[in-house]
Amino acid sequence: MQIKDLDFEPYLSRATIQQQLAKLAEDINRDYAGKDPIFIAVLNGAFIFMADLARHISIPSEITFVKVKSYEQLQSRGEHREFIGLEVSIQGRHVVVVEDIVDSGNTIQFLLQQLRQQNPESIAIATLLFKPEALKHTLDLNYVGFQIPNDFVVGYGLDYDGFGRNLSDIYKLKSEE
Ligand code: IMP
Ligand code: MG
What we know:
Helices cover 21% and strands 34% of the residues. By secondary structure, the chain is an alpha/beta fold. The strands form 2 sheets. A 6-stranded mixed sheet has the order 5-4-3-6-7-8, sandwiched between helices. A 4-stranded antiparallel sheet has the order 1-2-10-9.
């Protein structure tokens, strides 16, 4: 399967993903019963995961979305991140951050720091995919769909250069032989 200049091969089927979502949701429904959690999904990548997960969540809960903007600063070295879009107060709330993938962990680490400043009662992380080999932080990932090797993947919300988010299955970059 071709996206722009790269060739991808099937990796996780829609059926496999849906099965795993049902399990994650079962755990969340149990762990958050009576806690009225708020799900904070990270755009753009987590939009499909959040939508499908939500349909398995049976407890009273809220869903909202944030975006993490990341850009190189001209003056100082390193990346600058900014997070936008959180319009509800999370003070005293049980928060579940919903991510498409944890790779280096930079994004989620940054988000956790920002969200903690607003004094939620608790924060947990639910991520569809996790690349343990790429992780650069000590993070507690509470709900993980799939641990995957350090391969580049697309589909089910994840993109290559903006494309491929619409695919129902997940594909990985074909290794060159
Ligand atoms: P991290 O900050 O390095 O953990 O990366 C987080 C973000 O990078 C994810 O939310 C994705 O948007 C993107 N990303 C990381 N790995 C992949 C991948 O294999 N395919 C598509 N996007 C990825
Ligand atoms: Mg993302």
